[in-house]
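Case study.
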Amino acid sequence: MTEISCSDVSYEYPDGVRALNGVDLVIRAGERVAIVGQNGSGKTTLVRHFNGLLRPTEGRVLVGEMDTRTSRIARLASLVGLAFQDPDRQIFSGSVEAEVAFGARNVGLRAADLEASVSGALESVGLGDERKTNPYDLGYSRRKLLTIASVLAMRTPVVVLDEPTTGQDARGVATVEQILERLTAERRTVVAISHDMRFVAEAFGRVVVMREGRIVIDGSPAEVFAEERWPVLRSTNLEPPYAAVAGAKLGLGSTPTDRSVVNALVARSGSVG
Amino acid sequence: MLTLEAVSYRYAGASGKSLRDIDLSLSEGEVVGVVGASEAGKSTLALVVSGLAPRSIGGALEGRLLIDGEDVLGQPMHAMAAVVGICFQNPHTQLSQVADTVFEEVAFGPLNLGIDRLDVISRVTEALDGLGIVDLAERDPRRLSGGQMQLVAVAGLLAMRPRHLVLDEPTAQLDPEGKELVAQALLRLAGSGTAMLICEHDTDLLARLCSRVVALDGGTIAHSGATAEFLADPRLVELGVQPPGRVRLRRALESAGLQVDLPT
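After joint prediction, the assembly is written out as follows.
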C-alpha cells in the first residue's frame, strides 16, 4: 500500500514565490482527503509534489518507500495519477480513447488489460459513447471528466484530482462522487482539491485546510466545519457549507452536511418527545 | 439594451443547432443568470451574445442580435468588443499572453479600446483594488494560481467598463472570499448601468446577483423567472441544476417529514 508522507516541505518557484512553507502531512493508503484553502494558498503546488512534478526546495516527500527527489518520474507516475485543474493543459490527443489510453500505456498496460482499463474509465465518467470524438469537440465540463478518466485508466494506487467538480452540473458532480466511492471501494487513495465546501463535507472523510503555504486545520468535516473553526476558515477565505451554518444557528452542534442536520433534528425531537 | 430575437446558432461542421429560437433581452443595469446542464448551450450563448460566434469561430447564426434597437450582426468584432465584454470559462483563454505583469494584463483591454493612459492607470488600480489583488500587480500573469488568474481576467473586464458583459462561470475556480469580491465588483458595475448575463452552476451566487434567471435545456430556454421563486422550482433538478444550499436543505428536511424555519 502506498502512503504519501511530507516532512517539513517547502517550495519556492523560480520567480521567488514561496508557495509551501513547512508542510507536514501524512496521507495513509485508502484515505480520501480534500485539500481546501484560499486561492494561491499552495494547494496545487502541494499535490504536484505527490507525483514528482515538483520537488521540494526543502524537506522531503515520500511516496511509499520512494523519495521523490531521487526517484524517476515515470516510476512515481505509476503510483500517483494526477488530473490537472485546467483540462486544456493536459489533453493533447486527437480522440477521446487515444487520450485515455496514453497514460495507461505509459504505465505498462497492454492489449486486453489496456482496453478494459480504457473502457472502464470512460464508462465511469459517462464518455463511453464518445471514444472516437475529438476531445475539443467536448464542452469544458466533459473535457474535465476526460482528464479524470485518463487518470483512472492508469490504475494508480493514488489518485489526485485538482478541482474535479469545477464547471460540472449536478449530474457531473454526482458522477465525480460515484467515482470517489468506487476508488475507495478499490482501496485506492484519493486526494482532491476543491472550493466547493458542500462537496467536500459530503464526500470526504478528512479535510486539510491550507493558508499561505501551511496547513492550518486537519480533521473530519465535522471538526473542520465546527463553529469554533469558522474564524480560521475565514482567515483563508473559506465559508462553511450552508448546512453547517444552519445547524449552528439551530443549536445542533457541528452538522456539515444536509444529512447530519436531518439526523440531529430527528435525534433532538426523539429525545424531547 | 441588448436583445436576442429568435436566435439559433450552429457551430461550423456540426450537424445540429446548439441554440434554437432564443428570445432574451437585457436592460441597462440588469443582471440575468443562465443555468442548465453541461452542454445545454450556456457557453454557446455567451459566444453569440459577445459577437464571437459567428465572427471569430464561424458557424451559422439565424435571428437578430440588437443593441439599443440596432442590428449589430454586420458589425466588425472590434466594434462589438467596445460594447460587449466577455469573460471566458477558462481564464487561460482570457489572458493576452503578451503582458509580463498583472498590471499590464489588466491595462491591455482598455488600452486597446483607445482609452487615455492616465484614465487606464486609474481604472486598473481600481479594478485590482476592488478584487483584492493589488499585491499581484507586478507578478507574471502566466505564473499565477488558477483562482488568481481568474481574478485577473475579471479585473481586465472591469477596467474596460463595458456597457454589456457576458460571463461564463466567472467564479468557478475561486475561493468563497474571491467569489464575494467578484460578486461585489459585478454589483457595482451593474449599479453603474452595465447589463450582465452570467452563465453559472453556482446557484448561491446567482441568488445573490440576479434579478432574473433563465434555464437552458438542449439549446432552448426551458424556463425563466424571478430569481428566488425560480431557484426554488423543483424542475431545476431535472435540468441538472443544483439548487442553492438553503433550498437543498429545506427539501432534505421536508422529505424526512421535518418542518423547520431555516436561517437565511
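Observations recorded in class. The mean pLDDT of chain A is 95. Residues 241-273 of chain A form one domain. We will return to this complex in the next lecture.
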